[in-house]
Amino acid sequence: MNSTTLGLLTGLALGFAGAFGGFGAFLIVLVLGALGLLVGRVLDGKLDLSQLTGAGRDRG
After folding, report:
1. If you count DSSP H runs as helices and E runs as strands, how many of each does the chain have, helices first?
2. Quick check: pTM over 0.85?
């Protein structure tokens, strides 16, 4: 199991544990699942956040 899958499953599990039932719970699970997926992709090296943070820009 790679970090992307693990992050997604962790986010989904936390979402279910934090709020169970209704449309609000659905949104919380969706957001936490997406957040877990993003963290997993960063840990796998499949998502480069340097473009968003400005890191690695040439300051010449």
Report:
1. 3, 0
2. no
Sequence-separated (6 or more) residues with CB below 8 Å from residue 24:
none
Q: How many CB atoms are closer than 10 A to CB 11?
A: 22
Kindly indicate the confidence band of residue 37, based on its pLDDT and cuts at 50, 70 and 90: confident
Which segment of 6-15, 16-25, 32-41 scores lowest on mean pLDDT?
16-25
| Domain spans in the chain, listed from the N-terminal domain onward | 3-45
Q: Could you count the other beta carbons within 10 Å of the beta carbon of residue 36? A: 23
Nearest by Cα to 5 from 47, 45, 39, 30: 39
Total Cβ atoms within 10 A of residue 35: 16
